Amino acid sequence: MDIKNILITGRIYKEVQAILEDKDLNYQFYYLSDEEVTHEDLQWADAFASFRPSPIFDTSHIKWVHSFGAGVDSFLHNKAWDQTVLLTRTICSFGQKIGEYCLSYILRELQLHQEFEKAQIEKTWKPNAPRLLNEQTIFIYGTGVIGQEIAKMLSTFGVTVYGVSLSGQQKDNFKKIFSFTDEIPPTLKTNFIISTLPLTDLTHNLFDDQKFSSLDDAVFINVGRGATVREDSLINALNNGWLKHAYLDVFSAEPLPMSSPLWERKDITVTPHISAVTFPEEAVECFLETLKNITENQPLKNQVDVNKGF
Fold first, then answer.
1. Residue 21 to residues 24, 30, 112, 164, 212: CA-CA distances in angstroms?
2. Is the pLDDT of residue 124 over 90?
3. Does pTM surpass 0.90?
4. Res 151: pLDDT
5. CA–CA distances in Å: residue 289 to residues 58, 66, 152, 283
6. Is the pLDDT reported for residue 195 higher than 90?
7. Average pLDDT of the chain to the nearest whole number
8. CA atoms of 144 and 242, how far apart (whole Å)
9. Of 146, 142, 166, 145, residue with least CA distance to 307
10. Which pLDDT score, from 0 to 100, does residue 186 have?
11. What pLDDT does 187 receive?
12. 3-state SS string over the chain?
């Protein structure tokens, strides 16, 4: 693929510009905010790199689109995509970052942090024993690069890790991976559910009353996409004891509106989509590696299957 003109936009475009201008690259770059992008810019560009489409985005003259994030639903979900346009995404340390985010909240639950903080405020001596990681059973929904990294991290502590994916294909560090259509045996007691799922037609509102009602006092962690969860079903699950706590880093609307009932609940922890922040240096490294592989016709480990949405 012949790439000459590259349009860089999005919230870190200035940082990306500073890094790329220090490199000796034989390409023409143009750097703009999302709102500044014009039709003429899109007609000029062979390639477009950003976190999401610009407001007037179209790919009629573009050969390659690269997402600076791991997710590509802003480009694909409920949108038509020209199959001749290559779409890639950023793969870097997201798995480690998200794994450590999840591990921190798993330990918060097992080590009874909230209970002991409350007891200290009340000056109450309550020597309840923490629980062990190797006694836990955790289901990870989404067994791609990020899900596999989380499974690898947790399995080193002796956690029993199951996966759930579209294909059900078996992978390392999972005791077993179920497909979306498999019936998970009710004898498998789930202590934690971690969702790393992308947003696609199949995953939209996947976590509903039916999905949550099979649980009993479990903890839910969402680091995938907010719209994979029905918010009313999540609240219902907490009210019914199917879930005892939810740690949410992603939401259908971001920033989370001030009117959202999620802010007020003590059994929900809200974080502002920080479990895997894209650092400019990593974004550029992955972008340049992808560019090199494209121009040299090498395999792309980060190419998106636009029909699947990930």
1. 8, 11, 49, 43, 50
2. yes
3. yes
4. 98
5. 25, 12, 25, 10
6. yes
7. 96
8. 27
9. 166
10. 85
11. 86
12. CCCCEEEECCCCHHHHHHHHCCCCCCCEEEECCHHHCCHHHHHHCCEEEECCCCCCCCCCCCCEEEECCCCCHHHHCCCCCCCCCEEECCCCCHHHHHHHHHHHHHHHHHCCHHHHHHHHHHCCCCCCCCCCHHHCEEEEECCCHHHHHHHHHHHCCCCEEEEEECCCCCCCCCCEEEECCCCCCCCCCCCEEEECCCCCCCCCCCECHHHHHCCCCEEEEECCCHHHECHHHHHHHHHHCCEEEEEECCCCCCCCCCCCHHHHCCCEEECCCCCCCCCHHHHHHHHHHHHHHHHCCCCCCCECCCCCCC
Using alpha carbons, list the distances in angstroms from residue 4 to 28, 99, 123. 6, 37, 67
Structure tokens at 267: 């059994």
The amino acid at 251: F
- Amino acid type, 247: Y
Exposure string for 52-62, b = 16+ CB within 10 A, e = fewer:
bbbeebebeeb
The token pair that represents 7 in the structure block: 């349009």
Residue with tokens 């209970």: 115
Side chain identity at residue 206, one-letter code: L
